[in-house]
């Protein structure tokens, strides 16, 4: 089922923006993940013996991930179904393998706009017909799921979504999720479910994983966003075993497997996931309130819809129709990194991350306000 490349991969504007700037900033309020952990913090929170690291043998791991890591992922995220689990190099590898395995030139795929670039650009490179569902949201809730459901028809090969959504933080209800799954089931479409922010929710419980109930659903998870371990590069894909077997054939030409060292650290992290998640979610909750107060103080220069999940928002800078030059100036003159909305097709907006240290967020917002105050009456 794997297809050859029909077109070269388009440039990922988000990654191009962050590639060098990410390492040159003094205050980063651009991200979509929580504050990073150190290895020592992870081992302490997990109560992991350091002897595990000293006795590790650097042999190759299994194509689907080492048995102990897959079992840990299955217990935590897959209802104990180890056969549904493939451990991946972050969720990005899982999305790549799934798209290249299941999509063919001419297939129709429905994606949200704005949205994370990976599913849509991968589908485009394969030669798929990409249809964009323009996501509407208010007060953290997606307001037009019915329009998404209506777009799914006999010609739909796949639907790719993520809730809570990146970059708005909006989400859907369990009833709306069921309606989406039912619509996919009615036409035999695959559902690519990016669950990177599943457990980063504030006012409602996490949504159930559709891959445990719908055989044509694939869900993708990661330790990068809610668990503070982006540099570990460990994620997972939950899917039907036959789909995973096809993904492995492609993986033989990409990464082969994970490192046993990252698998060991990831296993300890997943076995003690609540210990990692709880303090970061508490910090994000406080930071979200801080951003809300800041927006209220600087209205009408800034408008936003408070996110219901995740640690990023997409506020509008109302006096600035194109935020890319503004973001460049903010970094150059104030040392603050944000993502311009052009990376998501929303040029009057910025992606603002609030998952990091509170002091950094407070500084970043103050410097952002300082520059905004000089731009309030004119365009840049």
UniProtKB/TrEMBL annotation:
- Keywords on record: Antibiotic biosynthesis, Pyridoxal phosphate
The UniProt entry, under InterPro entries, shows: Aminotrans_II_pyridoxalP_BS, Aminotransferase_I/II_large, Capreomycidine_synthase, PyrdxlP-dep_Trfase, PyrdxlP-dep_Trfase_major, PyrdxlP-dep_Trfase_small
Molecular function terms in GO for this entry?
pyridoxal phosphate binding; transferase activity
Domain Aminotransferase class I/classII large: from-to ranges: 65-368
Q: Which CDD domains match?
A: AAT_like
The UniProt entry's sequence similarity note says: Belongs to the class-II pyridoxal-phosphate-dependent aminotransferase family.
Q: What is this protein called?
A: Capreomycidine synthase
Q: Which organism is it from?
A: Amycolatopsis antarctica
What does the organism's lineage look like at the top?
Bacteria, Bacillati, Actinomycetota, Actinomycetes, Pseudonocardiales
């Amino acid at each position: 089922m794997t297809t050859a490349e029909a077109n070269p991969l388009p440039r990922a504007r988000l990654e191009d923006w962050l590639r060098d700037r990410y390492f040159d900033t003094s205050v980063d309020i651009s991200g979509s993940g929580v504050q990073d952990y150190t290895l020592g913090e992870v081992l302490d929170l997990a109560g992991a013996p350091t002897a595990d690291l000293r006795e590790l043998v650097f042999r190759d791991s299994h194509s689907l991930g080492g048995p102990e890591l897959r079992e840990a992922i299955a217990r935590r995220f897959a209802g104990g179904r180890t056969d549904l689990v493939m451990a991946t190099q972050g969720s990005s590898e899982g999305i790549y393998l799934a798209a290249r395995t299941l999509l063919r030139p001419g297939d129709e795929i429905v994606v949200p706009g704005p949205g994370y670039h990976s599913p849509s650009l991968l589908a485009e490179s394969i030669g798929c017909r990409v249809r964009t569902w323009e996501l509407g949201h208010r007060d953290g809730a997606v307001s037009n799921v019915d329009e998404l459901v209506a777009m799914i028809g006999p010609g739909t090969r796949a639907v790719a979504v993520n809730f809570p959504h990146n970059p708005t933080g909006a989400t859907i209800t369990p009833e709306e999720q069921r309606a989406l799954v039912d619509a996919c089931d009615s036409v035999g479409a695959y559902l690519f479910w990016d669950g990177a922010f599943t457990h980063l929710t504030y006012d409602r419980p996490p949504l159930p994983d559709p891959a445990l109930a719908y055989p044509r659903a694939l869900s993708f998870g990661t330790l990068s966003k809610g668990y503070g371990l982006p540099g570990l590069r460990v994620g997972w894909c939950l899917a039907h075993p036959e789909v995973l077997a096809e993904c492995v054939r492609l993986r033989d030409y990409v990464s082969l497997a994970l490192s046993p060292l990252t698998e060991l650290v990831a296993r300890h992290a997943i076995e003690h996931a609540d210990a990692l998640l709880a303090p970061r979610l508490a910090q994000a909750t406080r930071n979200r309130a801080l951003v809300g107060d800041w927006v209220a103080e600087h209205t009408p220069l800034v408008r936003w819809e408070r996110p219901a999940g995740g640690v990023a928002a997409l506020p509008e800078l109302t006096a600035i129709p194109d935020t890319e030059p503004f973001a460049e100036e903010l970094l150059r003159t104030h040392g603050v990194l944000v993502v311009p909305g052009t990376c998501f097709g929303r040029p009057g907006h910025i992606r603002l991350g609030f998952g990091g240290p509170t002091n950094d967020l407070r500084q970043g917002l103050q410097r952002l306000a300082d520059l905004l105050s000089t731009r309030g009456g004119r365009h840049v």
